[in-house]
Amino acid sequence: MDLYNKYENITSYNNYKEFYDNKVIQELGEKDHWTISEGKKPINFKAFLKDPSQKLQGLGHKKTLKQAANTECVDLKTLGNIMKKGRFTYVLDCLEDNYVVMDIEPTCTKELKEKLLKLPYLYGEVSMSGHGYHLILPLPKDVIKKYPDAKKKNCLKGEKNMYEILMYHTVTFTGKTINPVENFDPKNKEFEKLFESLAKDAKNTIAKPINIEKNKPKIIDEKKIIYYMKTHYSYNKTLEDFDDDISDFDFGIIGHSLHLLKQALRHPTIKKNKHKYTDNESIWLLFNFVSDIIEYRDKHNHQIKGMPYLLYQSKRCFERQKQELNNKYERTQKDNEEIRREK
Question: What's the pTM?
Answer without folding.
Answer: 0.66
